[in-house]
Please model this.
Amino acid sequence: MLGQIFIVGLNTKDHNIIKTLITKYHVGGLTLYKNLYKNYEEMLELINYIKALSKIANYEVLICIDEEGYRVNRLPNDFINLKSPNSLSYDLDNTKEYARLIGTILQATGININFAPVIDIKRFSDNHPIGDRAFSSNYEDVIKNSTVYIKEMKSHDVIPVVKHFPGHGATNINTHHFLPLITNTKRLFKEDIKPFQSAINNDIDLIMIGHFIIPKFGFCPSSISKKINKYLHEELNYHNLTITDDLDMGLLKLFSKPKLFKKALNSGTNLIMVKYTPTFFKDFQKLESYYQNNKLNKDNIANTINLLNNLKNKYHVTNTEIKNTIDITKINNAITNLNKKAH
Model:
């Protein structure tokens, strides 16, 4: 049961490791990276291997991807890459088509969760860690675009994930390398949190919490902060799933993984995202000892499992084998036409 709270970044092609993650540790999900496949055919082979193992293990593994388009593109090179979300967001029809194309590909490929859209506010240059990944520098336009995007993604039975709560646009520092300090909480509450509030009002199922230090909420990283989770539940009335950003990034790499996992679960965060490393199984076993010794929030874990099962039912997640039915040429023609509209 404990394995279900992990969404593991699959950065290895080793079938024995994949098999162990699913059949022994029963991880909740696997995130695919582009280096795992050379083309679309290989991508389908990997996904069907995961589904076959899931069937043997008698549960559904959530297959995840980080497919924002443009700078964050995990699809094989068979597909033309989309222009940035920011360059097309001036017209909501563009954003709808953007989400339709990604949703069509992911649904046909058997992918259940997409870690998109970015609903942070663009305050810095295009090449900033968020930059042109964000829809707009205006939070109202972020809300308009993200609402269209989320609705379209859901229509393809793909679970969208909004990120990076409470707002990576509030800092110029890259969380992939550091642990940013956000002190301007007046602006954070007035602007950055607004798109997340809107997503919650529109029944978003999954929110990714970023790695920030926000003195208003104490000096614990926000992704593993009890005060952040309390704010989400009590102030924003959010009761669906939360997930950490990858705990194997930035300064968090310096900390003990089992202690980070423990801190996250006891803070009220539901799911743990972490890239697979050779120490994962050892770290997991340490977490199991915490569980057995009643050092983990078992109510949170039980609630998470319940929410996960409901989510799988809502989005019709199955272990059915995926056939290659997608018309890549047709998709690429549509992407080319959309890209021509980029500003």
The longest strand covers residues 6-10. The mean pLDDT is 96.
